[in-house]
Amino acid sequence: MRAMARSGRDRRAGTASRSLLGAPEPVETRRGLPGDPEDRQSRYIEAAVNGVLVGCLYLPNGNPAPGAKFDYKLCWFERLRDHAKDLLEAGVPVVLAGDFNVMPTEQDVYAPERWVDDALFRPEVREAFRKLLAQGWTDAIRKLHPDRRVYTFWKYYRNAFARDAGLRIDHLLLSPELANRAVAAGVDRSVRGREHASDHAPVWIELSEPHPQRRQGGSRSL
């Protein structure tokens, strides 16, 4: 596990991940992305949970764009893609979950024309997200709700939540080992409507049991 934490390029990572997937309690396998030893921002943590490797992330916002913060966002995205590629090559079930600070398409934002210059919607960021998906990751919400407008974030001002003026910036990406096990996925909007709630709503997914151990009606939620 220590070797895995030092380098995302270490081919022992697959062995380490497999040995931890059966642990009864969550086991941390990585903290922080490889590729920049000087980057001390806490934006990525990874753990083995119930037979699945879960990478939780908070991708940089990047505003104002262009600028240094936007450049950092694109560099961080590239490091994420490098690590995500290693995870796929390890051949274990993986979920990449969290606030990606990206609206992938116009379907994911209530008023696309108002966001064209924002770091969450600029072409460079959307292209970076497309490149990540092209590695073989499946966008769980889009897989199960291909034509539906789904939002995960609503600003606090101008009554955005009541007007459903939202954005979809929180994503669940599934490795090929999990793509066909997605039973259901959605957004718990009721949480966003509570007093003093976060401006993000929880995004959830339900996975069926892996085929060799599948039981009648068996599933698990993350």
From TrEMBL:
Q: Which UniProt keywords apply?
A: Hydrolase, Magnesium, Manganese, Metal-binding
Domain (Endonuclease/exonuclease/phosphatase) spans 35-200
| Pfam families (alphabetical) | Exo_endo_phos (PF03372)
| Site (Important for catalytic activity): residue numbering on this chain | 170
Q: Name the cofactor(s) required for activity, per the record.
A: Mg(2+); Mn(2+)
Compositionally biased spans, kind Basic and acidic residues: 27-39
Classification via Gene3D superfamilies:
Endonuclease/exonuclease/phosphatase
GO molecular function, a single term: metal ion binding
Q: Which SUPFAM superfamilies match?
A: DNase I-like (SSF56219)
Superkingdom of the organism of origin: Bacteria
Q: Residues at site: Interaction with DNA substrate?
A: 200
Family, as annotated: Belongs to the DNA repair enzymes AP/ExoA family.
Protein name per the record:
Exodeoxyribonuclease-3
* Organism of origin: Bauldia litoralis
Lineage of source species: Bacteria, Pseudomonadati, Pseudomonadota, Alphaproteobacteria, Hyphomicrobiales
